[in-house]
Amino acid sequence: xxxxxxxxxxxxxxxxxxxxxxxxxxxxxxxxxxxxxxxxxxxxxxxxxxxxxxxxxxxxxxxxxxxxxxxxxxxxxxxxxxxxxxxxxxxxxxxxxxxxxxxxxxxxxxxxxxxxxxxxxxxxxxxxxxxxxxxxxxxxxxxxxxxxxxxxxxxxxxxxxxxxxxxxxxxxxxxxxxxxxxxxxxxxxxxxxxxxxxxxxxxxxxxxxxxxxxxxxxxxxxxxxxxxxxxxxxxxxxxxxxxxxxxxxxxxxxxxxxxxxxxxxxxxxxxxxxxxxxxxxxxxxxxxxxxxxxxxxxxxxxxxxxxxxxxxxxxxxxxxxxxxxxxxxxxxxxxxxxxxxxxxxxxxxxxxxxxxxxxxxxxxxxxxxxxxxxxxxxxxxxxxxxxxxxxxxxxxxxxxxxxxxxxxxxxxxxxxxxxxxxxxxxxxxxxxxxxxxxxxxxxxxxxxxxxxxxxxxxxxxxxxxxxxxxxxxxxxxxxxxxxxxxxxxxxxxxxxxxxxxxxxxxxxxxxxxxxxxxxxxxxxxxxxxxxxxxxxxxxxxxxxxxxxxxxxxxxxxxxxxxxxxxxxxxxxxxxxxxxxxxxxxxxxxxxxxxxxxxxxxxxxxxxxxxxxxxxxxxxxxxxxxxxxxxxxxxxxxxxxxxxxxxxxxxxxxxxxxxxxxxxxxxxxxxxxxxxxxxxxxxxxxxxxxxxxxxxxxxxxxxxxxxxxxxxxxxxxxxxxxxxxxxxxxxxxxxxxxxxxxxxxxxxxxxxxxxxxxxxxxxxxxxxxxxxxxxxxxxxxxxxx
Length: 784
What we know:
With 784 residues, the protein is α/β, with parallel strands linked by helices.
């Protein structure tokens, strides 16, 4: 603490303190030396005086000592009364026997007869004892003792000590005053330099200069400080000029960004509007009676339009990310349902190439999450699409696990990081290429673009989306050995009790199950699912092994009650295995579920003859497999037909109760498309070509739903919506309004909702999504 205080003291007082302490220490050392010198010299003088006195008295008493004349000896000692410091004197014979002594009256010496010692000086406590020989004709005949008090020595040293203290104090005070007067010549230039530096720092006044005081080091420091200020001043002027230019460039860049965003919005609208017509009308044409050649040509048109729309979406997404205008939604969704829909989208393309599609979701992964399912689907579609694109044989799989999960204080939700791993058995990526593939407009090499197509934007968008979702993306790969893309994303998982309890699958406990699949990964996934439900599973890698295992189990008296068979296997496929099982004289009839990469549900009568109870399309998810097992084992079928668990087989021709819909659309092609889609589902449609006509139609009558194009001549969709809401305020009614726009930039949805619309659909319209939104907002439900 003291060191810190000294460090924080001004340089002026530091110099004063250091100089004063140095002076004090030097003077103190000098005084100490003087005091020691005086002590030893005074003591030596006293001792010398006592020795001389003793020699004088001893020489005068030699004869008396020799003849033992006591009276003469006492008379010889009597003159010592003149020395008040001598407390006692004594004469001894040659044998050390005291012959006579002198003792001052005021002496309190308790030694009345001290023993004689050899000649010398002895310092005993408060006394100095001097023993000298008594000689007669150079022969020692006795010893004389003089015992003196040390009090005179102590008194003298006290006097000297006070004198030295007075000198030390006076010198220190004189030095302190002198230092106070002289230190300014050193400290004032430093203090002035410090004040100037603080002022420059506080006021940013680089014009200030420090005057030079002398030609010493401080004067050189002042010159250097002034040169530094001049340099800073010159650079500051340059920076101010540069900042003005940068500010102007920033304004121009912001204007350019705004123009770019507006251009992208307009381009989105201008491109998506005709794309809506191309894709929609192609879908309608494909639903009509066509020749094989016509259907083939329209199929090419549809696939080309879808590819072009994908490229447009990638460019728009990348532009939004680059402009910092892409944000995430935060809605509740079911993870497994979302993944199931995503995998189904890729499965058809993968199965056309003969590739197995696998999905393995760890049971610990929560299903009820809060996040952006659309962006999650976009990332997975990109990674899975690339895996299918670059894989010619083998498999493409998705593994989902929990990286970490932590409860949040005071919240009914827990934060979790979900890890998605997309693996394939494709061409692989070299170590050098792995460092480049996440850059925009880059693919592993130019030949890949020529061979497989693509813009090179997909993975760059994936990286940015992963960062927005609180995760990251990385890759593991060896050329020619396949690739694993890892992707993590942070979600909020609701802390709710699971809908599936142990009792829900208790009826499956111990059910003997055989899995026959040549794909090892798929066998492991199915084994994990069935073990989790309590079944007793075993697995075989081929149809022949499966048939042998079935025979062995029957002979052992523990036949399999449930058999899961892969349709496509080498040597003996799943159907041949089922045919062989059906021909066996087996009293224990097993329930057979067929798993296939292709949808062959149309052959239901044929497969039912083989004993197949249900037909599932890969990838198979836990919920649909469990539901199929439940139906196959415990529900009595009304017919012998096969139960098909596969998305996309719902019969067309749903009818709805007539609902009145107002369609406000200025583009004739889009008018025709939306009108045809709605009429196919039995809706009653009124068409308006602009906002003015739409408002007039609302004034004339009531509608169950309004489909409002955003950009229309005379009056756009936003103004028309505002006018309609005013009319409804007077009527005390509310009609759902769905905005239709070809814009796809950030803020379009929010702008539609803020204008009074109830929902938003981006063009080109996807039929299923279009029907779902219309059905959700229509006042009348669809009936079968």
